[in-house]
Write a structure and sequence with these properties.
The chain has 95 residues and is an alpha/beta fold.
């Protein structure tokens, strides 16, 4: 079996692109990826989407920085849908 090695090149962001990337993580559950990505220098916001309230509750328990909950209305093709939005520093989660 071949051993995996880290990449030999690195990518850095210039001041111009610093904190300009938004990352979408669909079906994120209670993934640690949201926190990991939010700490990246080039990332301004990580948005996770999940439909399971238990997964969101567990994530919130493990990450108390995710504190605000708002109801968000979205309109598409003449229909309105309501979502719960939880926010913290550089992280938002939608249900």
């Amino acid at each position: 079996m071949e051993e995996l090695k880290p990449p030999t090149t690195t990518t850095t962001c210039s001041d111009e692109t610093s904190k300009s990337v938004r990352v979408l993580v669909p079906l994120c559950g209670k993934s640690v990826d949201l926190v990991y990505l939010a700490k990246h220098d080039a990332v301004s916001e990580v948005v996770g989407v999940d439909g399971i309230q238990k997964a969101i509750d567990i994530f919130m328990d493990e990450n108390p920085d995710l504190y605000n909950k708002d109801e968000v209305l979205a309109q598409s093709s003449g229909t309105q849908n309501q979502f719960a939005k939880y926010e913290g520093k550089n992280i938002a989660m939608l249900k």
